[in-house]
Amino acid sequence: MIDVPMPQLGESVAEGTVTKWLVKQGDWVERDQPILQVSTDKADTEVTAPASGRVASLVAQEGEVIAKGGALCRIDETAVKGAVAPAAGPAVAAATSMVASSSANGDAPAGLASPSTRRMALEHGVNIADVHGTGDGGRVTQADVLRAAQPAPAPAPVAAPSAAPSPAAVRAAREVEVAAASAPQEISALIQAGGGFVPPIPGVGFGAYKVPPYVPRGGDQVVPFSRRRQITADHMVYSKLVSPHVVTVAEVDLGATSKLRDQHKDRMKKEGVPLTFLAFICAATIKALRENPNLNARVLEKSYVVLKEINLGVAVDTPGGLVVPSIKHADQLSLRGVASAIDELAQRAKAGKVTADDLAGTSFSVSNPGLKGNLFGGAIISQPNVGILRMGEIKKRPVVVTHEGEDVIAIHPVMYMALSYDHRVVDGVAANAFLWRVGDILSRAEFEVG
Fold first, then answer.
1. Of 32, 130, 262, 427, which residue is the catalytic one?
2. CB under 8 Å, gap of 24 or more: what pairs does 181-188 form?
């Protein structure tokens, strides 16, 4: 009998949530067969069977958070394939019945929470099993942990009865309470400390404005957020709240880069390396980041860090939603290496094979809307980075070029590129210098193609 443990899902990941069992007790499994799906704050991962055998028991339940190395299930590797599996004993049956009853009644296990919420609880000295969860299905949220971490107020002196609060005061207090429960960690702490900013409440409104209620109509389709969509939504709202976004745009002549690509793309394709415009733009971005390091940074509480490693994130659209895996140590790669890394990451992302480490450590990102893009657009910064470069569509346009000392009009492929940057750290001069350099490299085709 062997235990299947929760694997190490990334350098910075200490636990995972069991999201879906792909097998049940009594099933026969082959070695390396996926048996369950596990999720973290960074990625979804399939856990495979370490050996062939029969599933003796499922130790962890769906929705349960298991620490690295904790038992997920047990496999009897001595079982004979094709033999009838033994019936579950009374204890197993009772446990299964209890779990099924709990699911049916909508009761969540005590302390059900995401890995990031559990880390916050540890940092604040809160026993998460004692926290009342206000999230979906009783899940403990970060706001719940922050409330539990607050010291109990001292008993107030007995005072004479006062008049009942006005409806406006009751409404304002309720809005603050709801905002604290739904806001990101930093904003929630600010609200509970009694200061400053009360953010809009999704689906409710802000101040005097209230969101009109949804009235179902024939043909409407309500689509629940997937876990990835919910994480993306929370990330984007958080980024817009904490980072003062500024967008600057450059027009880039890709004529010289296009000619260089045409000279080498067929040969490199035969060698298994797609030489795309995205590869050239990423290579130019990497070089410009090395020359303008303040764009390769992250913000701390009262300081910022200029990062030595350039780990370039490349947005990839997958059937399950957008993910941004990163090319690690990208400045150490040639153009060929960058092109190969982009293709390899994209293929694994679309197959659902990216890992938590693939998605961690990004220092700057490039967003590509694809062939059906548009003129340009300002992307939202991927936290905790301070910038993101978004590509526009490539379109042939008339441009003025110098030929034999004379200005003439030529038809070249042109792209508008938009840089979104965090004005807490990056000033306009630095942002424009960086974006100008990216365009300069591309307009002069300043690349070595191996």
1. 427
2. 181/134, 181/141, 181/143, 181/144, 182/143, 183/143, 184/142, 184/234, 184/237, 184/238, 184/241, 184/242, 185/120, 185/142, 185/146, 186/242, 187/241, 188/142, 188/143, 188/146
Enter the tokens of residue 21. Answer: 């069992």
pLDDT given at position 35: 93
CA 108: distance to chain centroid? 25
Q: Is 427 a catalytic residue?
A: yes
Q: Is the dihedral angle over the CA atoms 149, 154, 155, 160 positive or is it negative? A: negative
Lowest mean pLDDT among 16-30, 202-216, 247-261: 202-216
**What tokens does 315 get?**
């947005």
Strand-pair partners of 65:
17
Q: What is the pLDDT of residues 304-334, one digit of tens each?
A: 999 999 999 999 888 777 889 999 999 999 9
Tell me which residue of 375, 385, 263 sits closest to 315, measured CA to CA: 385
Identify each DSSP E strand in 167-210 by its residue range: 205-206, 209-210
Candidates 132, 358, 423, 440; catalytic one: 423
CA angle 436, 361, 228 (to 5 degrees): 100
| CB neighbour list of residue 386: distance below 8 Å, 6 or more residues apart | 243, 294, 295, 297, 298, 299, 304, 421, 422, 424, 425, 426
Could you please report the per-residue DSSP string of 206-223? ETTEEPPPP---TT----
Q: How far apart are CA 261 and CA 256, in angstroms?
A: 9
- Global pTM reads 0.66
Residue (of 207, 63, 242) closest to 135 by Cα position: 63
Is 403 one of the annotated active-site residues of the chain?
no
Asked whether residue 177 carries a pLDDT value surpassing 60, the answer given is no
